[in-house]
Write a structure and sequence with these properties.
The chain has about 600 residues and is an alpha+beta fold. The longest helix is centred in the last third of the chain and has 35 residues. This is UvrABC system protein C.
């Protein structure tokens, strides 16, 4: 990306949260930063004067910008921290130490304790996080402690020791904050049920806890234990009012490589995320130029081997969107739901953003490649035998049958060719008959092109559904062009695309570039037709006002409008001036009518 000008790289950045990385001319990382809005933040480096000398020097050295999109600002901070510790960029001063973010630990022991920690010890305990601040952890733990009574002591509550009466309940038991498992007052089964519900709460899932407490509250109310039922009701309110304010990453997802692929006719984009303890430590997107009709499966398989070699990855587990064949010692997982699926979706988002960036940059640097890609995509999406380099779109305009007109707009290489636009007055149709009007206009258009031996379009777009499409087909049949030009209809309601002799419409993705070009054609034809229709109606109104004067005919009206341009100026003209244009006899009639 180093050869792409900085201005172009900036113009294609997304406006989502993420982490950006600056690289110098030798592709060495200079700086890692996070942003709530990537485009706004990164652009600020280049469009203002910086007071700090260090920042000015940094900006001078930047030759390429890379970024990783993430769901929230909190995730951006965590990812920024991981990347800084991994690469230790020269211009990052903050976060360069070896401090780590805090986690919530569910200890691997009988009657597990739950507490915050910065140490990640591999002793079978569960760790949730990392969190961006201790305040978030304390808020969450306060919620848990207000709902579930848990032990805080560090006794070894082995069954034989509890049975032998080795421990005595402490103040926490008398305050109601603990149910006294140390003296056997609470069973391990009940305690573990609480721990399972707490796990779900930490992940942001409150369903099981709320369901348990609501059924418990109803049972207590039926047993007339209203005070106990009220205490449960208070816990339900606490849970319902609490909302998880940060995205939690599952630390069980450790030492994993994630790969996704997005592709079009000419290129494929493979995103690679490397995870350690649920945190992203590396992100890279590879652009692959297609040579033949390679499948996504083949390309992803090759890309995984290439990327893992390039980054010297030794992860034994790989997440992918579909099955691929890799070395036998690797565990290939196709996630369907949960945390693993979310990480796969995040990787896909990064691939999509990278692809969009490239499109924006290519549009500026290499417009021909951009056009070729869109034409190839349209050919595939609309099942055409050739690329639609020349497209024509027809639209009818009439209001209650008055002044019926039609418009034909022309697009070449996906862009309007306004000098080739044409207006049509409907000649052979009486009243508001859209189908007959469409048949007339299509016939007139292509009869003329054939007579003048001009090039025919590869695609005709008809604004309307099956009815208008059938009418246009009659004209193509009459001219012997039925199989020579592809034709489709687009219905406004759900943007269905109709093909000849196919009753089932095609629904393109609403974000599809092919659909956007067809919509642009349709909208342009509608705008062009409506403008002509308005002009025709206003002219007809003017003509009728002048022609209503006795002794004034069409030719006189045309002569007056040619000289005076509007009825207002005709009304303001003197008798002498009017006489010079149309003679004294007619001038007197007009002058006396308006005065």
């Amino acid at each position: 990306m180093a050869h792409i000008p900085i201005e172009v790289q900036l113009s294609s950045l997304p406006t989502t949260p993420g982490v950006y990385q600056f690289y110098d001319v030798e592709d060495k990382i200079l700086y890692v930063g996070k942003a709530k809005n990537l485009k706004k933040r990164v652009s600020s480096y280049f469009n203002k004067t910086h007071e700090q000398g260090k920042t000015r020097v940094l900006v001078k050295k930047i030759r390429s910008i890379r970024h990783i999109v993430v769901p929230t600002e909190s995730d951006a901070l965590l990812l920024e921290n991981n990347l800084i510790k991994k690469y230790r960029p020269r211009y990052n001063v903050l976060l360069k130490d070896d401090k780590t973010f805090p986690w919530i630990c569910i200890k691997n022991e009988k009657f597990p304790r739950i507490f915050p920690t910065r140490k990640f010890i591999k002793d079978g305990s569960e760790y949730f996080g990392p969190y961006t601040s201790m305040k978030t952890i304390h808020t969450l733990l306060d919620l848990i402690k207000s709902v579930y009574p848990l032990r805080t002591c560090n006794y070894d509550l082995a069954q034989d020791k509890v049975a032998a009466g080795k421990y005595k309940v402490c103040l926490e038991y008398h305050l109601g904050n603990c149910k006294g498992p140390c003296e056997g007052y609470q069973s391990e089964e009940e305690y573990n049920r609480q721990i399972q519900e707490i796990r779900e709460i930490i992940k942001g899932n409150f369903k099981s806890s709320l369901h348990y407490f609501k059924s418990r509250m109803k049972l207590l109310a039926q047993e007339m234990k209203f005070e106990e039922a009220q205490l449960i009701k208070d816990k339900i309110e606490v849970l319902e009012n609490y909302q998880v304010k940060t995205t939690i990453v599952n630390p069980k997802i450790n030492n994993v490589d994630v790969f996704t692929i997005i592709s079009d006719e000419a290129f494929a984009y493979v995103n690679f995320l490397q995870l350690s303890h649920g945190s992203i430590i590396r992100s890279h997107t590879l652009e692959i130029k297609k040579k033949l009709d390679e499948t996504d499966e083949d390309l992803l398989q090759l890309a995984i081997i290439e990327i893992r070699q390039r980054f010297n990855s030794h992860s034994k587990e790989i997440y992918v969107p579909f099955e691929v064949t890799l070395e036998s010692h690797l565990k290939v997982v196709v996630p369907k739901l949960g945390d693993k699926k979310k990480i796969l979706e995040l990787s896909e988002r990064n691939a999509k953003f990278f692809r969009q960036d490239r499109f924006k940059q290519i549009k500026i640097i290499d417009p021909d490649r951009h056009t070729n890609r869109i034409m190839g995509q349209m050919k595939k999406d609309l099942r055409l035998s050739m690329e639609p380099r020349h497209i024509e779109c027809f639209d009818n305009s009439n209001i209650q049958g008055s002044n019926p007109v039609a418009a034909c707009v022309v697009f070449r290489d996906g862009k309007p060719s306004k000098k080739e636009y044409r207006h049509y007055n409907i000649k052979t149709v009486e009243g508001p008959d859209d189908f007959a009007s469409m048949e007339e206009v299509v016939f007139r258009r292509y009869k003329r092109l054939l007579e003048e031996e001009q090039s025919l379009p590869q695609l005709i777009v008809i604004d309307g559904g099956k009815g208008q499409l059938s009418s246009a087909l009659k004209s193509l049949d009459a001219l012997g062009l039925r199989r020579k030009i592809a034709i489709i209809g687009i219905a406004k309601r759900l943007e269905e695309i109709y093909f000849p002799e196919d009753p089932i419409p095609l629904y393109l993705d609403k974000k599809s570039e092919s659909l956007k070009i067809i919509q642009q054609l349709r909208n342009e034809a509608h705008r062009f037709g409506i403008t002509f229709h308005r002009n025709k109606r206003s002219k007809a109104a003017i003509n009728s006002e002048l022609e209503s004067i006795e002794g004034i005919g069409n030719k006189t009206v045309e002569e007056l409008l040619k000289n005076y341009k509007s009825v207002k100026r005709i009304k303001e003209a003197s008798l002498e001036n009017l006489a010079q244009t149309i003679g004294m006899s007619k001038a007197k009639k007009i002058y006396e009518t308006f005065h």
